[in-house]
Design goal:
The complex is a heterodimer of chains A (177) and B (179).
Chain A: H1 2-19, H2 22-30, H3 38-58, H4 70-119, H5 122-176
Chain B: H1 3-11, H2 17-40, H3 43-60, H4 70-93, H5 97-110, H6 118-129, H7 132-143, H8 148-155, H9 159-177
The chains are: A mainly alpha (177), B mainly alpha (179).
Chain lengths: 177, 179
């Protein structure tokens, strides 16, 4: 008898709940409840919180640490690019300066030579000119004169021998013929 | 057009959103509260999680595409918010799962808004002794009166698995409650 009552209790315990409303259900089977008028107050509270949230959305977001801000990141990237381009530019400027330094050195060397020339003594200049004249002009002139003489002599000798040969041949031919 | 579909339409219109949201609260606030309460145990915790749930619903309603029913979508948000709350508190207070379980019961029985008798306490103890998934399925089906289809959408578990889980749990409870 007792067992059959227990069995019917078991069956009804779970079935009863399905027919009642949720709050009652929880109260009856779980012993949980809520403060009086909770749901009405909670509704107001949720609506207020949503209003607050909306206002928070409208206010600009809390700023991050300054180096994490996107603006700063762009600035940092721009600075790096600027520094790199500055380094490259400075290197180019340096090499150009070196080239121009070489040119300046060359120019100053030329100027030095010209100035040195102006400062040479007349006697030294005359001696240089004489030496140059003797080496370049007189010796060359003598050599060319000798060559000319040799040429004339050669031609005279060869002409004589040819003439002799010719005359000899002509005479023989004329006499014999 | 169903009542929920109409409500969604209004919620997604900027002109009617606030009024529609008030209607949404009237329709679902209590159901979601009890769903949350069973997970987070105390009234105070349930109140916090309920607020967070509705704020999330308000913010995300424009992303709702109607792939599932509105109430299923809201239950899923409430479930996720509750689990997030527990996870956050677990990190703060407890070292292991047994500690959480026994602590849940202690906290519940000491809660100002719990006045259960011995048999109700026993039911809580039995439910707390179930596996996490079994507990959620039983609570959603039995106390929240959700269909297996709805629970399947919320927990992403097949209906057949849910049915077998639920009937196993019912059997366990029936056997243990009058021992």
């Amino acid at each position: 008898m007792r067992k059959s009552t227990e069995n019917s209790n078991k069956e009804t315990f779970l079935k009863k709940g399905l027919q009642s409303n949720i709050a009652k259900h929880h109260k009856t089977y779980l012993g949980t409840n809520v403060p009086e008028g909770y749901f009405a107050k909670s509704k107001i509270s949720i609506l207020e919180k949503i209003k607050e949230e909306q206002q928070v959305v409208e206010v600009p977001k809390k700023q991050k640490v300054f180096w994490l801000q996107p603006k700063f990141r762009y600035m940092a990237a721009a600075s790096v690019v600027f520094l790199l381009s500055l380094t490259i530019w400075l290197q180019n400027v340096k090499s150009n300066t070196e080239e121009s330094q070489v040119n300046v050195e060359l120019l100053s060397f030329n100027e030095d030579v010209l100035l040195d020339v102006l400062l040479i003594d007349d006697t030294q200049m005359n001696a240089f000119a004489e030496a140059t004249l003797i080496n370049e002009v007189v010796i060359k002139a003598e050599l060319s004169e000798q060559n000319l003489d040799n040429l004339i002599l050669d031609s005279m000798i060869s002409e004589d021998s040819l003439l002799d040969d010719y005359l000899g041949n002509e005479l023989i031919e004329n006499i014999i013929l | 057009m169903s009542k929920d579909a109409e409500l969604v339409k209004k919620l997604q219109s900027s002109m009617l959103k606030d009024k529609a949201f008030s209607e949404l609260l009237d329709a679902y606030q209590e159901r979601l509260y009890w769903h949350i309460r069973k997970i987070v145990v105390t009234h105070e915790n349930a109140d916090d999680v309920l607020q967070n749930t509705f704020i999330r619903v308000y913010k995300s309603i424009n992303k709702f595409e109607g792939k599932s029913a509105l109430h299923t979508w809201m239950y899923r948000i409430a479930y996720n918010e509750s689990m997030r709350f527990l996870e956050k508190n677990k990190k703060k207070s407890y070292d292991n799962i047994d500690e959480i379980s026994s602590n849940h019961l202690e906290v519940l029985f000491e809660d100002e808004y719990f006045d259960g008798d011995e048999i109700q306490k026993k039911l809580h103890k039995i439910i707390e002794g179930l596996k996490e998934k079994q507990r959620r399925v039983f609570q959603m089906k039995y106390f929240d009166d959700l269909s297996f289809r709805q629970i399947s959408d919320i927990l992403s578990v097949s209906e057949s698995t849910l049915k077998s889980t639920y009937y196993t749990v019912v059997k366990i409870i029936e056997e243990k409650i009058f021992l």
